[in-house]
Queue: 2 jobs
Job 1
Amino acid sequence: MHKLKILTIIGARPQIIKAAAISRSIKNKFADKINEVIIHTNQHYDDNMSQVFFDELEIPNPNYHLNVGSGTHGKQTASMIEGIEEILLKEKPKCVIVYGDTNSTLAGAIAASKVHIPIIHIEAGLRSFNKSMPEEINRIMCDHVSTLLFSPTKTGYNNLLKEGFPENNIPPYSIDNPRIFHCGDVMYDNSLFFSTLSEKKTTFLKDNNLENSDFILATIHRNNNTDEPLRLNKLFNAMNTIATENKIKIIIPLHPRTSKLLAQNLFPELYSKIKTSEYIKIIAPVSFLEMIELEKNATLIMTDSGGVQKEAFFFHKPCIILRTETEWSELVACGSAILADADENKIVEAFNHFSQKNKLDFPDLFGDGKAAEFICEQIIENIK
Ligand code: UD1
Ligand code: UDP
């Protein structure tokens, strides 16, 4: 039987992890129907931001590396578009899969739409309604040139309807007759699948004397938090206050973007406090299985990451979101997450609120753990 050739574009850490769900589904259920070719733009390239996930999550090695690396938005995106276009013309896939909202997503969407290859957007429809975020621009532009749009949440699906996407339209689907789906979250699939593996394979807590102790897990990498010194100082001040007053450890696997700016953007006195703190532990980015171990055992999670705030929910942990708004508004609506911005008072108040250990509600919002399977079935049915 003739296999459908799909081309997957990944580049940043969360996309590599998301792609694991689709690759696993292809391997387990659709190997006779789908042939997946993978391009890695290398937007992320440090071993602990990229290779570790291929080793650990059994994602097939990319067929192509673009070695684009870091740069300004224009330079980085342009270089990706050039590389992707060349491969699309050579490989002639039936469709292109892009994930989320990074510059690699946008580059894939621009390159594929211009050479008339249908785009499958996984994690479509999410909106922060804040166009100063590069991600908001990337996701809106990508959605509007896509053919099959898979939204992980009902809110995302409704956002697409509000932007004029049709509902219940009939095939054949195309860039001019796109089809939108509400299908659950491939990251929920992954969290369920890798949770057991994490328990078997990781010893991070044991190795770091964290077993049976309370700790907070925190991550910070959003550009407005890292690049605006005032915000970064407020965030670390709040964490220092919570850690010292409550004698609780805060484990921070720090994104390289933030690591590089810490000394430059924190006031010297705070920087020195953080570096010598008995409670605040800044560590290098960890693997996904280690991250799951940390998330499952943390008392509370503080983050500005899209992925990590959802994983807090998946593992039934309260979450303080270090942003003014979130694309995952359901988390806030059901009370398990609080938007605290980079506001010291709000962050401390949110911590105190969750410390009272009121029972939190974690309804089923992200599907049944089979979103990847559904997506593959729809691709096979609708892309000819
Ligand atoms: C990107 C995405 C963001 C996503 C995040 C996931 C865009 C516009 N942003 O942000 O949506 O949440 O990835 O982590 O695409 N760096 C390294 N080593 C690496 C990668 C990056 O040192 O392997 C440093 C470089 O100094 C680089 C900086 O991090 O300039 C930012 O990297 P970049 O990929 O441009 O953006 P992220 O902040 O990672
Ligand atoms: N993650 C990881 N190791 C870390 C930090 C994050 O494996 O040290 C995982 C995390 O579990 C989630 C994804 O990376 O699945 C989120 O990526 P990130 O926060 O970089 O980006 P975002 O989701 O905000 O786009």
Note: The mean pLDDT is 97.
Job 2
Amino acid sequence: MAPTQIRIDAPADGVRRITLNRPEARNALTTTMLGEIAAALAAFAEEEEVRAVVLTGGEKVFAAGADLREMAEKTVVDVLDDPRAGHWRAIARFPKPLIAAVNGYALGGGCELAMHADIIIAGRGARFGQPEVNLGIIPGAGGTQRLTQLVGKSLAMKLVLSGEFLSGEEALRAGLAAELTEDAETIPRAVELAARIAEKPPLAVRLAKEAVRQASEALLAQGLAFERKAFTILFATEDRREGVAAFFEKRKPVFRGR
Ligand code: DAK
């Protein structure tokens, strides 16, 4: 079936581009959209002519996190069996180079999606953050682990505990982004880099990616398991319901620690 919430095209030889396509909801990640990304990557993994993939939200916004309308309806039991977890694992398993071109907000699951890429190219106007704490939850798709590996404990703590954002320039300085560009150049630069990688010997590229990932993979598994458990527990709290309700009612949440 053709995807409905992402667009796919081939901007250069050997390169495929996935563009998240719900601008009216700031590309908030529905389960459908995550499933479409995972399915597209699974197909690209099998297609020999695909050598590298660019993932972007377009010129204005990368992704404003999990779709809070969808999340508001969910119970803790839904979260236990959530298909999203499988989609995230499928994205993490993609064996070919994945480059995220980030313009505008990359928040919550959006920041986690960017961190699933191998390389992040950030526009000057990019804003990275893990604002889950404002909703009474924590990152649930590897944010606590991948962000800490990328930027170190102190900055990761600041972002995860306060919900504050990093600019594109700060993301570059912190090592979250590999390059900083003008906003109009983010996607073209990511495509150019993907095209260059696409010309390299595919087997060497595949094993190079795998080898670099091994540098952090063992530690990651344990941390992800803890994060998932903590995320699920927090889903059952009154504070989580209050945080999501306050977002849609455009007011400050009142958290009671229950
Ligand atoms: N979900 C749904 N709708 C969203 C949305 C979101 N995350 N973000 C924005 N929208 C919608 C708004 O409701 C609004 O819709 P209308 O009122 O027009 O109908 C429209 O997009 C435009 O939003 P704004 O008016 O707020 O636009 P601004 O440019 O002023 O602000 C913003 C953009 C991105 C700063 C702001 O919209 C914002 O703060 N958005 C929410 C950010 C956020 O808290 N994201 C969620 C983090 S929690 C899981 C694993 C992981 C997760 C979940 C599950 N499992 C393994 C089960 C991840 C959780 C998260 O990501």
Note: The mean pLDDT is 96.
